[in-house]
Amino acid sequence: MNDSPSTGAPRWGYALLLRLHFYAGLLVGPFIFVAALSGALFAMTPQIENWLYQTELTTNTTGNPQPLADQITAARAHIGADATLAAVRPAPAEGQTTRVMFLVDGLQPFEHKAVFVDPVNLGIHGELVVYGMSGTLPFRIWIDYVHRHLHLGEPGRYYSELAASWLWLVALGGLALWWRRRSVVKNGQITRNSSLRNWHSRIGLVLLVAFLFFSVTGLTWSKWAGANIAELRTQLNWATPGLDTQLDAVSSEVSHSHGEHAGHEVAGPVPGSGDNASSYDAVLERARRAGIDASILEIRPGTTPERAWVVREIDRSWPTQVDMVAVDPRSMAVTDHVKFENFPLAAKLTRWGIDAHMGILFGLPNQLLVAACALGLCVLIVLGYRMWWLRRPARTAHTRPNPRRVFAELRKASPLALVTMAGIAVALGLFAPVMGVSLLVFLMVDAILSLTGSATKSAN
């Protein structure tokens, strides 16, 4: 079956693109499939998580909540003196529990042991491991680790970066191949392979924007490309503003939160460590007066006596509430205040993009859309493998495969085209090193196959 287009750019360009699309789909496809499937599961699990951990998350008591100091004391009595108090998330609404989070031995980075306290009667509803700013619970943590690094830790992050690095290129390559093939007529002949290819193309076209979105937002989390993206955002002044928590002799006495509430500070508790439970109520009250009004928030003590406490909003649904303030626990002065409304547009888009990627920006509609697009990507990959299986070359004593090879097509290109492609490949490799290394692997595989094919022909 002749798959080459009859018109358009040089045939070697089409053949080269087809071969690279094939290599990327065949070799990177499994990684993209795992990332897509785990991403779909992650997006659809908040409701499952709320059901699984209903005992820990909810309470039937009603009435006025007790001071945070008393809730923290109850959590401390439950978990013991060896754990280090790391943060507190007050109950966001009536009928929900407060999370008092501790650092304990044996946890992974960014994990805490959360003790769930009834804010009214101070009863303990259990303890669970929670992860990161999103506060995911064990069920979603397990899925998230599959999506992030296959439960392999830091080395496993290369898998997700490989998937995100190639997804956009494979998607755009598929679009280019479809564009070249759109006017080719197969004399009315419909085969299983052409039918599969039509479905493969249709799914890719419908979900193209989603694939590009997943790739770009996924790369912001990656190790190597993500670091380059962060550096680029910093150079362009697109970075997310940070909160200054450094305290000094001046900032411990006077607020410099851009003039807001200046001169109206009140005396606070005696300075202490993060285990000074009485500080949490005063710090929260001061943050509320400074404009932190979200129901979902976190209070985190300073890591050293020279660092301010941080109160941050963590409601990433729409409208996004992620304002944060730094509070000096000695004077109750707000020493810095970062508002989401003052973020650069690029930083806002990054925040919204990441949250939409996770399926939390617009609630259930966002979850369903992410899951549908991710599962569509899984179907597309399965169709691609099925096409490859149907078209695989038969190896018999009388027939030998004669597929197009990358190096064979490159020899047909002009010097200018070769230099241009080499420049693009080097630039992509420097910006996304995992992609660059994998591209070299593809070329090495192709070179070995080319040499093997040549040797076989010579022997015959």
Observed structural traits:
51% helix, elongated, alpha+beta, four-stranded antiparallel sheet, 3 domains, single chain
Topology overview:
Layout: H1 11-43, H2 46-52, H3 54-57, H4 68-79, E1 84-89, E2 98-103, E3 111-117, E4 124-131, H5 138-149, H6 157-181, H7 192-206, H8 208-219, H9 224-235, H10 278-289, E5 297-300, E6 309-313, E7 324-328, E8 333-338, H11 345-358, H12 364-391, H13 406-410, H14 415-431, H15 433-459
Antiparallel strand pairs: 1-2, 2-3, 3-4, 5-6, 6-7, 7-8
Helix pairs in contact: 1-5, 1-6, 1-12, 6-8, 7-12, 8-11, 14-15
List the helices and strands in order. HHHHEEEEHHHHHHEEEEHHHHH
**What is the overall silhouette?**
elongated
Q: What's the arrangement of strands in the largest beta sheet?
A: 1-2-3-4
Please tell me how large the radius of gyration is.
28 Å
How far do the termini sit from each other?
A: 25 Å
| Largest sheet descriptor | 4 strands, antiparallel
Per DSSP, the total helix count is 15
What percentage of the residues does DSSP assign to strands (E)?
5-15%
Q: Overall mean pLDDT score?
A: 86
Helix content: 40-55%
The tally of strands reads 8
**Low-confidence regions:** 250-272
Number of domains: 3
> Helix/strand-derived class?
alpha+beta
How does this model look, in words?
The chain is elongated. Strand 3 and strand 4 form a beta hairpin. It has helices at residues 11-43, 46-52, 54-57, 68-79, 138-149, 157-181, 192-206, 208-219, 224-235, 278-289, 345-358, 364-391, 406-410, 415-431, 433-459, and strands at 84-89, 98-103, 111-117, 124-131, 297-300, 309-313, 324-328, 333-338. The protein has three domains: 11-40 and 153-233 and 364-459, no CATH class; 54-136, Roll (Nuclear Transport Factor 2, Chain: A); 243-342, no CATH class. A four-stranded antiparallel sheet has the order 1-2-3-4. Strands 5-6-7-8 form a four-stranded antiparallel sheet, with helices on one face. The protein starts with 10 loop residues before the first helix and ends with a helix. With 460 residues, the chain is of the alpha+beta class. 33% of the residues are buried. Helix 1 crosses helix 6 (157-181), helix 1 crosses helix 12 and helix 7 (192-206) runs antiparallel to helix 12 (364-391). 51% of the residues lie in helices and 10% in strands. The chain crosses the membrane at residues 20-44, 158-179, 199-221, 368-388, 416-445.
